[in-house]
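User: Sequence for ABC transporter ATP-binding protein below. Tokens please.
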Amino acid sequence: MHKLIKNKALYYLTIASILAFSMLDLFKSILFGRFFNTLENKNTLSQMVKWIVAFVILMFFVETIMKGLMVYFKYSLRERLSQDLYESWLALSPDEFQKTDTSARINKQTNEINTIIDQYVTSKLNIYRYGFLFLIGSLYIGTNSWILLLFIYICALSLSLFNRTFKTRLESNQKEVLSHQKQWIGVLKGFCTNFLTIKDYDLDTKYSSRLQNQNKLLSKVTIHSEWLKQWVLAINDLGVNIIFFGESLIGFYMINQNLISLSVFMTIIQASNMVINPIGWYMEMYNNVQSSSVVVDGYLKEVQKRKHQKKLLNEPIQSFLLKDLVFKRKEKTIFDHFTLQLQKGKKYLVVGESGCGKSTLLGLLSGTIPHPHIYANNIPTNALEHSSIAKQLTYLRQSPDLLPGTLEENITLWQTADSNKLNRVLDQVHLNSLKSRLHESVQEDSLEISGGELQRISLARGLYNIKDWLFLDEAFSALDEENAKQIEYDILKNYKGSIISISHKLFDENIMLFDEVIEFTKQGVNVLSSLEYLQKRKNSLHPIKNQISNNESVLPDKR
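Assistant: Structure tokens for ABC transporter ATP-binding protein:
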């Protein structure tokens, strides 16, 4: 519990309010016993009624404060747990973050934090409450009859030992429920992301059956887990009833033997509610804590991972170096002892067939894919904080994302908009049609724009927030040739920083604006000047034209 708590002052104040309310519960028992001694005395009875009214009002205020503090403590803790969780995610590198499935992260953010608060923390607070009641009630009963107290303690110890025998099974059941919840969320995610494929291939019945099977499995393990908890709870209730009636029989015997008076016995009976009832409640809360502790352990493991201390690069990146790089992905060799240096201020075009490693190159350079043989200013990028590179790099991907907010916020990234700069950027990427929609609140799944417009929003975002290095990964793929040619030309002509651009849409006029071309081939990676690459490109096209010409000459005349 203490490992979860951040606001210690609020925590201890909440515990103090629980203790105060528990002490008032004992005072209620004493007041109840005194009430029996005043039934035949009207004056004393009148005074007692005033005490009772005052006590009821006091108890109402104390209980209100206690419950208010408990609610405030739980919701402030929920907020802090969520914050710690997403801050731990933000501290990860892109490569580390992508190792965990999105649905698993959403499950941890919602179901697991709810379980921690609603089962673990709430049960812990109630355990404190019932523990205080038990101790304070025991103290009063013990001063009046050690025999009754001994009987209660023996029964309470027996119930406690009984509940402990189910600790392992309760934890195991909770793990199984969590596992099936993750599988269920995964199947639902697959349904949502592949809905068009399901409809295209008429998989409605098959996928519905798969959903139903997973749903049944989740219900089965959840019912089994809850049934065990309820069965243990029923045994605890049985034990509480045995304690109550056993205590009553012992008490009546002691009254007959003139060992205690009726009024004292009635006070003990009332005080014993503070001891007997909390035994059953405590066992229920204890079982909740045991079954949910596995969730708490998983959460703490997530947010308290030791992070390697990485360096901050405070100087401008003058060069990137790939030195004797060997890199494989899924047993396929992408780079085999490859060396390449990229200098600040130059513009590089990256070309080659799909799947040859062009996007991997940008991922390695940006630190998205960590590797010890990639250097920025001769410092290995995997030893640097990812933010050190990101602050100097604008990375435009082929499939851009929309962020929550307005179109304008998606471009300015929540900075105060410079209207002149914003208009200039929108003109540069040919997005005049969206100027009237900049303050629209957008959602990625409901935005009514084309793929080309979405890619131009990404371009506008990159140009508005331009940095020293610009990475373009098929950033013009969704544009028609005319727009792609004009926007690329404008960027190459006017941007003074460094550019590394992957493209399949090649235009001779634009190629001439690059300093070097990095060409991926089946034989390896070549680095050419733009003139050398254009000449090679023209030579590779001439045989095709000659082939077409020769084929035409041998075709029979159809006239």
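Residues 204-256 form the longest helix (53 residues).
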